Amino acid sequence: MKITIIGTGYVGLTSGTCFAEVGHEVTCVDNNPEKVATLLAGKVPIYEPGLEELVKSNVAAGRLKFTTSTEEGVKSGEVIFIAVPTPPQPDGSVDLSFIEKVAREIAQCLTPELGYRVIVDKSTVPVKTGDKVEQTVRRYAPAGVEFGVVSNPEFLREGCAVDDLLHPDRVVIGSNDDRALAYMQKIYEPFVAPVLVTDINSAELIKHAANSFLALKISYINAVANICEASGADVEKVAEGIGMDKRIGRSFLNAGLGYGGSCFPKDIKAFIHISESLGQPFGLLKEVEKINFDQLDRFLAKIREKLWVFREKKIALWGLAFKQNTDDVRESVAIKLCQKMLSEGAVVAATDPEALGTAQKFGELTGSISYHTDMYETLDGADALVIGTEWPAYAKADLHEIKKRLRTPLVFDGRNLIDPKDAKAAGLEYISIGR
After folding, report:
1. Collapsing DSSP states into helix, strand and coil, what is residue 388?
2. What reaction gets catalysed by this protein (predicted)?
3. CA-CA distance, 138 to 7, in Å (whole number)?
């Protein structure tokens, strides 16, 4: 099928590329000419394993195109996906101005001669947004235009998005238009995955409800970790025992510094706001949010307890991305940890396999900080090592090399990557979470 994706951010670019990979003809639209030129050259402005290779191969095969023209995209695509940012506002609500603007632009490009078009919300949006999109298109489109509106939420995880899109565990399609649903089912025919067809409101709620539940699991195990520390239990064993129950599962039961990134913090705030606006306050999610905020302060308190003060102490910080296998530092807990240490006068030597550039550009880190590609180099003369991101390389680090390079053999593991017994055997004073 002929598909158009408006917006080549993380969701739009990965979705469009994977649609092209399974054989669809895809046109991606972005209003940034430099970005479009970069993508046409087969280069990707974000780090996502496997994505750049797929962009290059599908551009070369002619299945993936990029343009700055919304009109070109509307003319070429039978199905038009909206994948633009939906940033949070101070009150927790979602800024839908980009969605509204794109809906207007699509409407103004539609003509009766083009035939039926399906307009799909791919961005994460509050329930009832589909109704607003439909109203906007009807208001600004010429008379006689035929179209349907669909909600098709994405469930990709940064760091493994290509696999998530090519091999999804489910596809959710929500619409009140049977014709639009038929188009969407045809798009997803090449993907081997269960397809859930719902009304549009249910589809919009599914994404917020799913992310909020996953965040709940993270905050739950972090709360349990605090109880483990107070009682002398091991949160890793507790999580293993909980996760063996098939009704619960082991995923997202990893104690640590808490959740971050561009989705969970925003989506929890949005779901709280949505529930309150509907007259159904969601107090449980407020507690989930509070536990997540408190987790960072608890970890900082552990570091202060050992170092006494941060001022003029050199800290080696391993990890700046919000999670492994991405260069994304949006709402990164590691970045927030770094900011707090710097604000208290620490000298930070930071490293990350992929996020050094994005951290320097977007991290807003001020103070005495240096950036290093060699993770062991950060240790030289440091008063402590702090692990902020769960990169596999940190879990496999040479503990004796860490001991040799540190001024004092203190390791604060915010992701529970290192075995405490191995750390002790290497002569390290090791502090982690919940064990």
Report:
1. coil
2. UDP-alpha-D-glucose + 2 NAD(+) + H2O = UDP-alpha-D-glucuronate + 2 NADH + 3 H(+)
3. 22
Structure tokens that stand for 305 in this block:
């307890």
pLDDT at res. 246: 96
Of the CA atoms within 13 Å of residue 254, those in its CB half-sphere come to 14
Strands (E), 176-218: 195-198
76 contacts 4 by C-beta, under 8 angstroms: yes
Tokens of 111: 């003509």
| Contact criterion met (CB below 8 Å) for 352 and 319 | yes
The dihedral region occupied by 308, where left means phi > 0, alpha psi between -120 and 50, and beta the remainder, is left
Residues near 301 by beta carbon (within 8 Å), at least 6 away in sequence: none
- Enumerate helices (H) and strands (E) in the chain, giving the number of each: 17, 14
Residue type, 123: S
| Separation CA 39–CA 33 (nearest Å) | 10
CA distances from 264 to 207, 216, 311, 414 (A): 11, 10, 32, 19
Residue among 269, 254, 266, 272 nearest 218 (CA): 254
Distance, in Å, from the CA atom of 55 to the CA atom of 29, rounded to the nearest integer, reads: 14
**At how many degrees (to 10) do helices 264-277 and 283-307 cross?**
140
Indicate the average pLDDT of the chain.
96
Does residue 338 have an active-site annotation?
no
Say how many C-beta atoms besides its own lie within 10 A of residue 227's C-beta.
12
145: confidence class by pLDDT, cuts 50, 70, 90: very high
Q: How many CB atoms lie within 10 A of CB 243?
A: 16
| Pair 218, 259: CB distance under 8 Å | yes
Write the Ramachandran bin of 427: left for phi over 0, alpha for psi from -120 to 50, otherwise beta: left
pLDDT at 98: 96
Per-residue pLDDT at 95: 96
Whether residue 243 contacts residue 255, with contact meaning beta carbons closer than 8 Å, is answered with no
3 state DSSP class of 157: coil
- In percent, how much of the chain has pLDDT > 70? 100
Matching residue, tokens 């529970």: 416
Question: What amino acid occupies position 247?
Answer: R
Q: Which two tokens stand for residue 196?
A: 């859930």
pLDDT above 90: residue 414 = yes
Name the DSSP class of 142: P
Please classify residue 52 by burial: count the beta carbons closer than 10 Å to its beta carbon, then call 0-12 exposed, 13-18 middle and 19+ buried: middle
**Catalytic pick from 18, 28, 109, 263?**
263
